[in-house]
Amino acid sequence: MATQAQKNEVLQLTKALNNLKEMRGSCPHPQRKGLEKNIEKLKKELIKKKEKYKIMAKVAKLVEVSFTTRVIVEEDATEYQIIQASKKGFQVKLDNDEIEDNLVLIEDDEECPFGTFDTDK
């Protein structure tokens, strides 16, 4: 189990990494390549420290899936009526164990990392 000092070290590295990521948007183009290198270097260092200290942290991920369903509606159906008619088809797809067939992407939530919301546990 990691000591408090080791946890603090990882926390400081995480904060430094987040600061660099925030700087990315305002960094002039010629300097961005160097900033990206520093971000990658810090990411690798953070991973090594977490592995060394056996610290596993929760992270926030964004998961995007894409579904299409067919509905039968009256030709003058409103958008609302069409959406209501599609709910059952979408629910079947959500309940399907093979949801990965509809996976578009999984990525880190850099805008709202873990701990941003009170519901993060």
Written account of the structure:
Helix content is 52%, strand content 9%. The protein has two domains: 54 residues; 64 residues, no CATH class. It is built from three helices and two strands, in the order ααβαβ. Strands 1-2 form a two-stranded antiparallel ribbon. It has 121 residues and is mostly helical.
Short description:
The chain has 121 residues and is mainly alpha-helical.
Please indicate the count of domains: 2
Instruction: Round the mean pLDDT to the nearest integer and report it.
Output: 88
Report the β-strand fraction as a percent range. Answer: 5-15%
Number of helices: 3
What spatial form do the alpha-carbon principal axes imply?
Answer: elongated
Alpha-carbon distance between the two ends = 20 Å
The major beta sheet can be summarized as: 2 strands, antiparallel
Succession of helices and strands? HHEHE
Question: What's the count of strands?
Answer: 2
Strand order, biggest sheet? 1-2
Helix content: 40-55%
Which runs of at least 5 residues are low in confidence (pLDDT < 50)? none
Which radius of gyration do the C-alpha atoms yield? 22 Å
Structural class: mainly alpha
